[in-house]
Amino acid sequence: MATERLILRRFRASDAGRLSEYRSDPGVARYQSWDAPFPADKAEVAVRNFAAGSPDRPGWFQYAIEHTAERVLIGDVAVRLHDNLKQAEIGFTLATAYQKRGFAAEAVSAVLDRLFRLQGLHRVMGECDARNTASAALMERLGFIREGLLRQQTFIKGEWTDDLLFGILAPEWLARESVGPL
Question: pLDDT tier at 177 (50, 70, 90 boundaries)?
Fold first, then answer.
């Protein structure tokens, strides 16, 4: 799948080094389930697992975000399709050098468009650490509604964290006039 500046594709074995690099950035890993550094051997296993998934089957699928002009992996968008094939959870990660330039909005918009327009999903939800204001703001810009706060929901990296819950329904997404960069 392509956007104005990005290609969203299946992961390839050659992506392991770059995945290890951006996931090893403490700023990128701060609100994620993995720890930095993210070793090369772990990245190789992750890439193999990502490549084996299917965006059309229940479970997790990870889209690689490739910068078209630079031909470099800059992040990923994860989708967990529910067993009913009508709901999904979404998450996203972007290398620090590519943040605050509209790439995450562009990539997530393309994935949402696929989920709602091509796969016919009814609902997509997102969850983030309440301290991750950039992720929360991105979901809100994309039309997600904040649906809740789970107090001390997750024990991660030695501390309890609050989680924010967001959701967007098909009619809300389909009513949007533009799905380009925000």
Answer: low
**Do 145 and 173 form a contact (C-beta atoms < 8 A)?**
no
Q: What tens digit of pLDDT does each residue of 30-41 get? A: 999 999 999 999
**pTM, whole model, 2 decimals?**
0.94
Asked whether 135 and 128 are in contact (CB, 8 A), the reply is: yes
Residues in a beta bridge with 150? 163
Q: Are 141 and 41 in contact (CB under 8 A)?
A: no
Strand partners, 72: 67
